[in-house]
């Protein structure tokens, strides 16, 4: 099994190293990941600038290719140029920080997996919820992620299908509540900004929001992660609003 | 009617100026747009850096706020800090270049409109297909966009609903074939890269793909734009794959 592993926190991030060590049990894992942190870059790609690459060796883990681009660039470039053949699976992560609710649409981790799915490959995004009062244990989190990944694969993940997996923040003596299949929470999250003035009198604004796993419907990713479940959400990339499309087609649209 | 106008080509781009002049007929149009070109930045946002702002005046058009961030930042910041009240409509565009098919997921123009919809506002993205053999007439294209916008609004665009409008490339003597309600084409587009070596021997890759409105199903945005229709696609932001979610819930998921 040939697995492409990428992320959005950069090739040297602890989350990707922990995922590599776990995924190596499944087959040949090739790492192509951004050179630098690409958090919240969404589904950006690089068209007008060159993509520089370099070999990076992480001791006791892998030698991979660092790309000075976005997560989605890494997937495109790996598939087109760097891998010996099309991979059997693409994994993106493990991200430092949850990708649930509205954050799914900002996430570079999810974007890399969606890119792979759009290109016709089975793909999985993995993210870890962080809590400031708990020391992050990437190794343990990656081993929980593998339990979910193995079950996703045994359920059958076909070409173009994608699973978004989030691991809860757990204290050393805590266990996950289980694995739960959930939908993406689509409640709006209203950001807050602090207005400030720079030394030259120019106004600037700083995002001061703290995303919290707040009150929401029980069947969502946000609620399940709050309740310490490992959450799995199958995602798709067809943004067409089918119901509205059907309704609007019933009207006569004229150039007038 | 209070309208927030933004884009991803930057506040000085000809497309946003042309849209402003047309939209002014509908109400009070406030412009909050990126300071610089943000093409293909997808749904990125700025969390860890400050967002600098400045007033920009475009002669014979508007005085707006330039934000040194992403299109989605502009929507967030406008709603939270810059506008006197929640707008009645958010318009993003007119983008220089079509946003159909797979490009919908990379587009900063679409991301700004999706951000607005996620926050509970009605929103519209407008993009113009460019052809190198035709001189781009933004004024004429914006007037065609308005014909579609007026019909979208008269059909009723509710809170959280979004329309993705694309205007075909037309020679001066050509007319659009009509207005068509279409779905997003989800056929994969495989990019190509040229491999090169920099003066110091480092390998780099340059995206050499040319997106074309190729063969596809007749009811898609790609086909309609190719056939010179003004295309309208209602979009949504719930990425949950409902069918897979239902299927996976039938299986027992265990931590083992």
What is the fold-level CATH name, i.e. the topology of chain A?
Stationary-phase Survival Protein Sure Homolog, Chain: A
What's the assembly state of these chains? homodimer
The largest inter-chain interface, given as chain pair and residues per side, is:
A-B, 82 and 82 residues
Given as residue ranges, the uncertain stretches of chain A (5+ residues, pLDDT < 50) are none
Q: Would you tell me the overall average pLDDT of chain A?
A: 93
Beta-strand portion of chain A reads 15-25%
What is the CATH class designation of chain A?
Alpha Beta
N-to-C SSE string of chain A, H for helix and E for strand: EHEEEHEHEHEEEEHEH
Distance between the termini of chain A: 57 Å
CATH superfamily of chain A: Survival protein SurE-like phosphatase/nucleotidase
Treating each run of at least 4 consecutive H or I residues as one helix, how many helices of chain A?
6
Which class best fits the helix and strand makeup of chain A? Answer: alpha/beta
Radius of gyration of chain A: 19 Å
Give the % helix of chain A: 25-40%
How is the biggest beta sheet of chain A arranged? 9 strands, mixed
Q: What is the total tally of β strands of chain A? A: 11
Could you say how many structural domains of chain A there are in total? 1
The CATH architecture of chain A comes to 3-Layer(aba) Sandwich
Strand order of the largest sheet of chain A: 3-4-2-1-5-6-7-11-8
- Shape verdict of chain A: globular
What report would you give on this structure?
The structure is a homodimer of 256-residue chains. The first copy, chain A, is of the alpha/beta class. Chain A has one domain (2-184, 217-240): Stationary-phase Survival Protein Sure Homolog, Chain: A. The first copy, chain A, has helices spanning 14-23, 71-82, 108-118, 138-155, 221-226, 242-249, and strands at residues 2-6, 28-34, 51-57, 63-67, 89-96, 123-128, 162-167, 179-181, 193-197, 203-207, 230-235. In chain A, the strands form 2 sheets. Chain A has a 9-stranded mixed sheet with strand order 3-4-2-1-5-6-7-11-8, sandwiched between helices. Chain A has a two-stranded antiparallel ribbon with strand order 9-10. In chain A, helix 1 (14-23) packs across helix 4 (138-155) and helix 2 packs parallel to helix 3 (108-118). The longest helix of chain A is centred in the middle third of the chain and has 18 residues, at 138-155. The radius of gyration of chain A is 19 Å and the shape is globular. The termini of chain A are far apart. The model of chain A has no long low-confidence stretch (mean pLDDT 93). At the A-B interface, strand 3, helix 2, helix 3, helix 4 and strand 8 of A face strand 3, helix 2, helix 3, helix 4 and strand 8 of B. Strand 3 (51-57) of chain A pairs antiparallel with strand 10 (203-207) of chain B, so a sheet runs across the interface.
